[in-house]
UniProtKB/TrEMBL annotation:
Keyword Membrane appears in the UniProt entry: yes
InterPro entries the UniProt entry points to: AAA+_ATPase (IPR003593), ABC1_TM_dom (IPR011527), ABC1_TM_sf (IPR036640), ABC_transporter-like_ATP-bd (IPR003439), ABC_transporter-like_CS (IPR017871), P-loop_NTPase (IPR027417), Type_1_exporter (IPR039421)
Domain ABC transporter: start-end pairs: 357-592
TM helices/strands, residue ranges: 37-64, 76-96, 150-173, 179-197, 261-287
Topology in membrane: Multi-pass membrane protein
Assigned keywords, A-Z: ATP-binding, Membrane, Nucleotide-binding, Transmembrane, Transmembrane helix
Residues in ABC transmembrane type-1 domain copies: 40-322
Subcellular location: Cell membrane
SMART domains (UniProt xref): AAA
Pfam families: ABC_membrane (PF00664), ABC_tran (PF00005)
Protein name: ABC transporter ATP-binding protein
One of the record's GO molecular function terms: ATP binding
Length: 595
């Protein structure tokens, strides 16, 4: 596909936004609802376990002011046993929380990834052009892992630690009102610092995650295009691009660290100052006789115990911001409208389906384009007829072939099968009637059998063999180490261009489709092999309607008719020989003469 024929839309990221919002996280509630009791249970066990830690300082107070103060060392055993019991309850609560939450959080991650994958399969090709592949990859993997960590750890502990801090502050106030006042006053600057952190961190968090997607895109392209990069000596150039993008990610990550450092120094330093004040006030109160030593020890122990819940808010806020950013990026895809859908009242075509394909004054423009790529295209292809579509680069050939299986939708006029607008045919049935083979074949990291049977997973071995025979691919497939079961590797790069094209063609003809749209799928074949493939297609698929993009005379000459596409419209039709005699433009496109 040429750049002229398929303009790529701008990246749909939104780095200029002010940052993620809690609303994006709240939208996950329908997905979380099936596991709500698991989350509630895990939080409940954690709260109970954590609150046992608040009881231990009170037991310590009782020991110091009771048995120790009165010299009754025998009275220590029962409180000591209570402390041991509380420790066991704490450990059991932590164990129960992890056991309860591990599976649901993992299932939630899998469900969200599946939902994202289904959405990516549902949206149109035009919408896919709006994102870099690396951005989609980072959303499907990194962002979903961030959501899982938030639901399994950060979110529960934000609730647990909040309850713990409130309960601890209440206990401190009951022990001595001045202690509670100190902690309350210390919480004010902490709150203000956290608000400032949240406002700054969410912006740089979004920027860092988008930049990570850019790096993933560069890595993916460098791996897939390694042959081109090496052949043109551009590996070092792309390497510099990778380093530049990596440095941008590093800069953003270091800025996150700077914000984190300010927050952590505050949440660690301010509680330490508060503990120092409690120690001073408590010592003074003991000297005045207003406080017992046990109460002071209990207060210091309580304040020390509360340091972790307070300090962890820095980490939890960072995780919450990362999760909110990931949620925003997730919903950007999920909220993308699906433009290729069944029309209301769409009905399957009734048998028998003849397969007459017609373009009725059809026009098409890419989204946001300032002019039509195709306009007023009128062409009819009868059942069993092969029509070659010929035109100069940029004339709209590939765009036209993409319209038949509704990878895009026409903007005016109609494409019909047996007189029915394809938009009135259910998409699932349409794509079972129409098979496509592209000039650049796409193969997957799977066996030859799985690649050929991609559209017909229930195909028998005999049917797969017949498709390979039609595509003249049986010979080289049998020579592969494990024949049909040989894994051909990512993008099929272990095969030659002609071998990849023949496997893609075999995939297209498997199941004997009613309509075939072939975008110059034999360009890498020699003329003799191409003629054999055409002969097999006519013999085995005599009733299949075929629209064939042709770039060389040998391909056009094998078609029943040729349609000349020029500047987005059909300007001439006829046999190859007839057009050579009557159309100077056709002769120019075919390279016969210069005009």
């Amino acid at each position: 596909m040429s750049v002229v024929e398929a303009p790529v839309a701008a990246d749909r990221r939104t780095p200029a936004r002010t940052g993620p919002s809690v609303k994006a996280l709240l939208r996950f509630w329908p997905d979380v609802r099936p596991f709500k009791w698991h989350f509630i249970g895990s939080i409940t066990f954690s709260v109970l376990a954590t609150l046992t830690g608040l009881v231990i300082p009170l037991v310590t107070q009782h020991i110091i002011d009771g048995p120790i103060a009165h010299g009754d060392f025998g009275g220590i055993w029962l409180p000591a046993a209570l402390v041991l019991l509380l420790g066991l309850i704490d450990a059991a609560g932590v164990w129960a929380r992890r056991i309860i939450i591990a599976r649901p959080s993992s299932e939630l991650e899998v469900n969200l990834r599946a939902k994202l994958f289904r959405k990516l399969q549902a949206i149109s090709v035009g919408e896919h052009d709006g994102w870099d592949s690396g951005q989609l990859l980072s959303r499907a993997i990194q962002d979903m892992s961030t959501i899982r960590r938030f639901t399994a750890f950060a979110m529960p502990f934000m609730i647990i630690n909040s309850v713990t801090v409130v309960a601890g502050l209440t206990v401190l106030t009951v022990l001595h009102w001045e202690f509670g006042l100190v902690v309350f006053l210390a919480s004010i600057p902490l709150f203000l610092i956290c608000v400032q952190f949240e406002n700054k961190y969410k912006v740089v968090s979004r920027r860092a995650q988008d930049q990570t997607g850019d790096v993933a895109t560069t890595v993916e392209e460098s791996v897939q295009g390694i042959r081109v990069l090496k052949a043109f000596g551009r590996s070092a150039h792309l390497g510099m691009t990778f380093i530049r993008q990596s440095r941008q990610v590093r800069t953003s990550e270091l800025l996150k660290v700077r914000y984190d450092a300010v927050l952590w120094s505050s949440v660690i330093g301010i509680p330490a100052i508060a503990i120092g004040l409690i120690l001073g006030i408590g010592t003074w109160s003991i000297a005045r006789g207003d406080l017992t030593p046990g109460t002071l020890v209990a207060a210091i122990t309580m304040a020390t115990f509360l340091r972790w819940p307070v300090e962890s808010f820095g980490f939890l806020l960072a995780e919450a911001n990362n999760a909110a950013t990931a949620a925003d990026r997730y919903w950007e895809i999920i909220d993308t409208p699906v433009s290729i859908t069944d029309r209301p009242g769409a009905q399957p075509l009734e048998e028998p389906i003849r397969g007459r394909l017609s373009f009725n004054r059809m026009s098409f423009a890419f989204p946001d384009a300032d002019r039509d790529q195709l306009h007023d295209v009128t062409l009819s292809i009868e059942p069993g007829e092969t029509v070659a579509l010929v035109g100069a680069t940029g004339s709209g050939k590939t765009a036209l072939t993409n319209l038949v299986p509704r990878l895009y939708d026409v903007t005016a006029g109609a494409i019909c099968i047996d007189g029915t607008d394809i938009r009135d045919i259910p998409v699932e049935q349409l794509r079972s009637l129409v098979t496509v083979a592209f000039e650049e074949p796409v193969l997957f990291s799977a066996s030859v059998r799985e690649n050929v049977a991609l559209g017909q997973p229930d195909a028998t071995l005999a049917e797969i063999r017949e498709a390979l025979d039609i595509a003249q691919a049986s010979g080289f497939v049998d020579e592969l180490p494990w024949g049909l079961d040989t894994r051909i590797g990512e993008q099929g790069l272990s095969l030659s261009g002609g071998q990849r094209q023949r496997l893609a063609l075999a995939r297209a003809v498997l199941g004997k489709p009613r309509i075939m749209v072939l975008d110059d799928p034999l360009s890498a074949l020699d003329v003799n092999t191409e003629e054999k493939v055409q002969a097999e297609l006519r013999r085995v698929l005599p009733d299949s309607t075929t629209l064939l993009v042709a770039h060389r005379p040998s391909t056009a000459s094998l078609a029943d008719r040729v349609a000349l596409l020029d500047e987005g419209t059909i300007v001439a039709t006829g046999t190859h020989e007839h057009l050579l005699e009557t159309s100077a433009r056709y002769r120019y496109v075919m390279g016969s003469i210069d005009v």
